[in-house]
Amino acid sequence: MRILSSLIVMVCLLGACAPMAMFASGSGAGYNGLRSDWGTYVSHSNVNAFCLSPKLRLLIWDIEGHFGKKVVMNSGYRTPWHNASVGGAESSFHTKCMAADFYIPGIAKSRVIAYARNNGLVGGLGCYPGQNFVHVDVRDRPRGYRGPVTFSGC
Length: 154
What we know:
This protein is α/β, with parallel strands linked by helices.
């Protein structure tokens, strides 16, 4: 009896730790033709979704769980050479496996931005006018910042 009750408690505790992203949907017209790279949908073959810091992976799961849909990554890890070729900042968090540019099919960009602004895991938030994606990174927030560092149209 004692073993059974211990087993039930353990299953309940582990179940509570399961990320809600496990239940996020990756189906529908917005996902047609996209490929998955390490469990993340990517918009093209140049996107590296392998090198994501644990904190960034947790943030992505949190966002997917909140909206109930998988993100589609436009940019993840970039080598310094790739980063320079796309005009990225020299000290870009993309080169440190700490940033992602993404969108969520069927979810308004403004809703993603609003959620990211209030998410404690987001250290930096970039919103590019005329683009369908947002940038998030998991840098440490500067002292005194209650929200993420924002730039480019946020």
